[in-house]
Design brief:
Length: 158
């Protein structure tokens, strides 16, 4: 029984399956270092008041987070900014010209077929009704050559 064990020793089950080692019985450590068996006559030493206090504490913290989300939040935009946007109407013989070299681009292929967009001497295949966005390397250029697609929107970012 757990009452006869020295401090720090866990009680083992009283009726293990024959041939198996006894497992540890459900227990909790008392202030004196001994382990007390858990059961109907000796439940875990947690009261409803402790659980309720913890729940109320969590509710208070959650409400503080929700209140903060409703406040103004200081934000700062970083990253790319749209400089120019062109469509197939701006193309001449399949080439769209921008005012500056392309560093970052977004392409939306509105067509029902895949399109190939050559940006900085790199071919980018954009599936039908899909988009692509990235910073692009390659040979700097201000032109995008388009083949396959006849309906698209191209944005140059800086």
């Amino acid at each position: 029984m757990a009452e006869n064990l020295p401090a720090g020793r866990l009680p083992k089950e009283e009726n293990p399956t024959p041939g198996d080692r006894a497992g540890f019985a459900g227990s909790w450590q008392d202030a004196d270092g001994t382990y007390k068996r858990t059961g109907k006559a000796n439940p875990l030493p947690i009261t409803d008041a402790q659980v309720l206090a913890k729940l109320l504490d969590l509710d208070t913290k959650q409400q503080a987070v929700l209140d903060k989300l409703n406040d103004k939040i200081n934000t700062q935009l970083t990253g790319s900014k749209l400089q120019e946007q062109k469509t197939e109407a701006d193309a001449s013989t399949g080439v769209v010209n921008f005012s500056s070299n392309i560093e970052a681009i977004e392409i939306y292929n509105r067509d029902s077929v895949d399109g190939i967009f050559n940006v900085n001497n790199l071919d980018i295949t954009v599936p039908a009704n899909d988009s692509f966005q990235a910073t692009v390397g390659g040979t700097p250029s201000n032109e995008v050559s388009v083949s396959g697609s006849t309906s698209y929107i191209i944005g140059r970012y800086a």
